[in-house]
């Protein structure tokens, strides 16, 4: 059952508010709009890039009927804390896979995990994703050190020039997309959009290709330094 059908069957109706992630694809918010309900964007956890339960609590109003938590890049959202938050406020909680994600082949998942583990051990030029139970690594998403989007984009161009087919996984917060614009600023979402980069962990990648990728990332990452923080 899709997100629209799940929300409709649970009684979400026109005029209700539904809390959705601000970081990711637009399909989840559009499913809420299709029902005539209002998507309310909540910030994500800096580590998981999935909904932050504390941000969900902050987004709740008397009109809130439901929360949709999306498993992002193959990493499961923290459903225990999110369900606890939902119970506290009497909300329906829906867990959804990332739009477009298919049913993973377990051999492919095992190989992706092997490649992710290899990169976890060897990458020093970027911040690697936390290894958690259940992560299928649909995408291996790192954070590029430095000063946000300009450094991340330059880093990505340099990697591509070295034959590493990296990609920016999310181009903008959902609340800035046409038809879904809201006058909000969510700091962890903004940082994730500016800093994240997906590196390939396809099952067919060879060990030599992984070594080349790690070497390029480490060499480039050493050139980037975060801007000094102002003293207060």
TrEMBL record:
One protein family per Pfam: DegT_DnrJ_EryC1
UniProt record similarity statement: Belongs to the DegT/DnrJ/EryC1 family. L-glutamine:2-deoxy-scyllo-inosose/scyllo-inosose aminotransferase subfamily.
UniProt xrefs under InterPro entries: DegT/StrS_aminotransferase (IPR000653), PyrdxlP-dep_Trfase (IPR015424), PyrdxlP-dep_Trfase_major (IPR015421), PyrdxlP-dep_Trfase_small (IPR015422)
Cofactor annotation: pyridoxal 5'-phosphate
Keyword Transferase (UniProt): yes
A GO term, aspect molecular function: transaminase activity
Protein name: DegT/DnrJ/EryC1/StrS aminotransferase
Keywords annotated in UniProt: Aminotransferase, Pyridoxal phosphate, Transferase
GO terms of biological process kind: polysaccharide biosynthetic process
